[in-house]
Design brief:
The chain has 459 residues and is of the alpha/beta class. It is built from twelve helices and 16 strands. It is globular, with a radius of gyration of 25 Å. The two termini are 22 Å apart.
Length: 459
């Protein structure tokens, strides 16, 4: 029975991309309708693969169908699917209409009905202050400010209601040491700005002609060290190998202001090692200094250490023509390339040691792709991508470059889930300056560490 289940699992892994979403969903539902345990197992794996596909493609509808199937089959198979059930509940709850909340009374504000034709022209940061500019001069009765403490979520909220309307969609703004700043149309006549934080914030503002200028000062800065410890306890008796790309004679990409990829990725790798070790994991580095290591020796090292995970860290790059356009975080797992974008990135990272292709050979490569590690690596890539973006977006605006399959030779031969993270474009002026910033590197490493924990929690 065990051999039969394992064989069926491998067949589904290889053929997962051969069917369309709807075909795969219909097939999973057909198996789920059966009372046979083997069919239930097949349906469960089909729904999980559909869930991964939905996350990669941003398909919310497919994700709901997949989560429903996972929960239903998981319960029949006595598998712990509580986290999937929680996620499904959150999605369904968010879809329910939320009752309109009353604005707290402000004894200092005049209650004036204003049907305003004022329009918001721009929102920008200037000298550390948030500046909202409108198309006309604002009257004194068009601005209402109040603050409150939400005891349910334990957050302080500072609210500006301005009798005007937006010309653009709602916006989420970023400021260091502030949890959330959101600007949206509260009703047809009211523009609402909400500043939310877990500690008190000093707010001062002034109205000047057609502008509202707001100064936001946190009462205390958040400590990086305080966030290093993981929120929940896991079995951390795991071995993780971190691979800082390139090194020695191979500098990797040379980017903006001649920043070198090999230096940046080693610094991030060391920060990640520090956090994971502080959480109790056994962590090893393929290189601890500026040393050249052949691609095949990196996964060979991970195999010798009997690693549970292999994470290779790199920085992306493009030519000068597109240097100001290409930016964002990307995560790759080993598989046949399905896009020209993935092929280009893989070719760039593979170019340092072309002999690897002869070493492994085509047949060896294809054999590796048929292993169950494809699905596990895919899951790991998704968890790393989501957690890192969540960490960085607390302070920075970062593009989601997505999770993609690609034939990276540094991942070939790994006997454990293995991914390659492109932490950003070293050729992009803004992103390159961030990548060499130690605070940004720490925030990046924190997100990657949380992604590792998320993977172990879900698997």
């Amino acid at each position: 029975m065990v051999r039969l289940l394992a064989t069926l699992f491998l067949v589904f892994v290889v053929n997962i991309y051969a069917l369309s979403d709807q075909e795969q969903l219909n097939k999973a539902r057909k198996y789920a309708a059966s009372e046979a345990k083997v069919d239930q197992f097949c349906a469960y794996n089909d729904f999980k693969n559909l869930y991964l596909r939905a996350l990669m493609n941003g398909d919310e509808k497919l994700k709901v169908h997949a989560l429903g199937g996972i929960v239903k089959c998981g319960k029949k198979l006595h598998i712990d699917v509580s986290q999937y059930a929680d996620e499904l509940y959150e999605i369904q709850s968010a879809r329910k209409p939320i009752p309109k909340q009353k604005t707290p009374k402000n004894k200092y504000a005049k209650r004036v009905k204003v049907h305003s034709s004022h329009k918001l022209k721009s929102v920008r940061w200037k000298n550390g202050r948030l500046v909202l500019t409108f198309d006309k001069k604002l009257r004194s009765n068009q601005l209402n400010y109040f603050s409150l403490y939400d005891s349910k979520i334990k957050k302080y909220k500072y609210v500006f209601d301005i009798h005007a309307s937006m010309l653009t969609k709602s916006q989420t703004l970023k400021k260091q040491d502030i949890d959330k700043i959101k600007l949206a149309q509260y009703n047809p006549n009211t523009l609402r700005l909400v500043i939310q934080n877990d500690s008190k914030v000093s707010i001062s503002f002034k109205k000047s002609a057609n502008q509202v200028i707001i100064k936001i000062v946190p009462s205390k800065k958040k400590s990086y060290k305080a966030t290093v410890t993981a929120p929940t306890r896991l079995d951390r008796n795991k071995v993780i190998v971190i691979d800082a790309g390139h090194g020695g004679k191979d500098p990797g990409a040379i980017g903006y202001r001649r920043y070198r990829e090999k230096v940046v990725v080693l610094q991030i790798a060391k920060e990640l090692q520090k956090i994971l070790r502080s959480r109790g994991y056994h962590v090893y580095m393929t290189r601890k200094n500026d040393k050249f290591i052949k691609l095949r020796n990196r996964t060979r090292f991970a195999n010798r250490k009997k690693a549970d995970l292999f994470i290779s860290i790199h920085a992306n790059a493009v030519g000068k023509k597109n240097a100001k356009k290409a930016h964002g975080l990307e995560c790759y797992f080993l598989d046949k390339s399905r896009s020209s974008r993935a092929k280009k990135v893989a070719a760039q990272e593979n170019s340092a040691d072309m002999s690897e292709m002869d070493y492994y050979g085509k047949q060896s490569f294809l054999t590796t792709l048929n292993s169950h590690n494809i699905v596990a690596s895919n899951k790991l890539a998704i968890d790393l991508q989501r957690s890192t973006l969540a960490s960085l977006r607390k302070k920075y605006k970062v593009k989601d470059g997505g999770v993609r399959p690609a034939p990276f030779w540094v991942l070939v031969g790994a006997q454990m889930p293995a991914v390659l993270v492109e932490v950003g474009f070293i050729t992009h002026p803004t992103e390159a300056r961030r990548l060499v910033n130690r605070n940004y590197q720490k925030q990046m490493a924190l997100g990657l560490a949380n992604g590792v924990e998320r993977y172990f929690r879900n698997n």
